[in-house]
Amino acid sequence: MKILVTGTAGFIGHHLAKALVERGDTVVGIDNINDYYDVELKYARLADAGISRHAENWYEKVQSETYPDYSFIRMNLEDRERLMDLFKTEKFDKVVNLAAQAGVRYSIENPHTYVDCNIVGFLNILEACRHNNIKHLVYASSSSVYGNNKKMPLSTSDNVDHPISLYAATKKSNELMAHTYSHLYNISTTGLRFFTVYGPWGRPDMAMFLFTDAILNDRPIKVFNGGDLYRDFTYIDDIINGIISTLITDAKKTYSIYNIGNSKPVKLTDFIEEIEIQTGEKAIKEMYPMQPGDVEKTWADVEDLKSDFNYLPKTSIDIGVERFLYWYNNYYCLS
């Protein structure tokens, strides 16, 4: 298949693009390479997939030197005309939309960025799919849509009408917009609610990266809510397997929403302890109260994804941390 993957300079998008071309698909990746976090890490991800530094240039199609069936274009989802031209030129079979402005806390300080990218950009994707006969759109939602729901594990049948961050609100909006387009235009859409993804090439603003970087550089780590937080840490390989399974299989319904997580929540203090054990270093902990927009616990009910697509997360937290540390040490030349 020929597949558009948005957000391929990002963490999940990078891994997905490589996995798809390695299984024989043709992939066009797009990303705006914004400066929400270190752009050098984004360029390094692209380089890992054979995309040269020419990716700095806007709208220039850059061919991978490693994968003949992978190319990259720097562009914004908000650029409606260019996005529509891309769809018309490339004639994609399917689309995976992972591009978004991420981060719960950042959304409190930069709300307009989230509306521009996550809502306007997603509308442009839906319109491009509508007018170009796209067989299936898979898109990233988030566990943050559950807000402070207390019933565990979190299920897609739960009410998600009370988001507690603008980021979560934009992701809930994406699900509603996808439902509308599935209903009106018979477009197959599948939303995946990601639960705390981690692993090699991960985002620097996420716990795995933040804690490791601080511990190895003798800096204190911020521990919110006294460490009494639980996250359904999900290793990147399990996430990628789940995305590909939903993408390549004929959609069960025109409109679908699934949780994609590990379904084994880990207490934050235990997660920190695992990093301490594997690095041989002790964390300097600074305790902070609960942050606005954060939730106390995430725990994914993934039975629907297991039933429909044989999804089976299998990477334990100790193995996942070990693999991240191996990448981190090599990336920063520490080993």
Account of the 3D structure:
By secondary structure, the chain is α/β, with parallel strands linked by helices. It has a single domain, classed as NAD(P)-binding Rossmann-like Domain (Rossmann fold), CATH 3.40.50. Helices cover 41% and strands 18% of the residues. The chain is built from eleven helices and 14 strands. An eight-stranded mixed β-sheet has the order 3-4-2-1-5-6-7-12, with helices on both faces. Strands 8-11 form a two-stranded parallel sheet. The chain has a two-stranded parallel sheet with strand order 9-14. Helix 3 packs parallel to helix 5. It is globular, with a radius of gyration of 19 Å. The mean pLDDT is 95.
Give me the secondary-structure topology.
Elements: E1 2-6, H1 11-22, E2 26-31, H2 39-48, E3 61-63, E4 70-74, H3 80-90, E5 94-97, H4 104-109, H5 111-131, E6 136-142, H6 166-185, E7 189-194, E8 197-198, H7 207-216, E9 220-224, E10 230-231, E11 234-235, H8 236-248, E12 255-260, E13 266-267, H9 268-279, E14 284-288, H10 303-309, H11 317-331
Parallel strand pairs: 1-2, 1-5, 2-4, 5-6, 6-7, 7-12, 8-11, 9-14
Antiparallel strand pairs: 3-4, 10-13
Keywords: NAD
Protein name: NAD-dependent epimerase
Domain NAD-dependent epimerase/dehydratase: 3-261
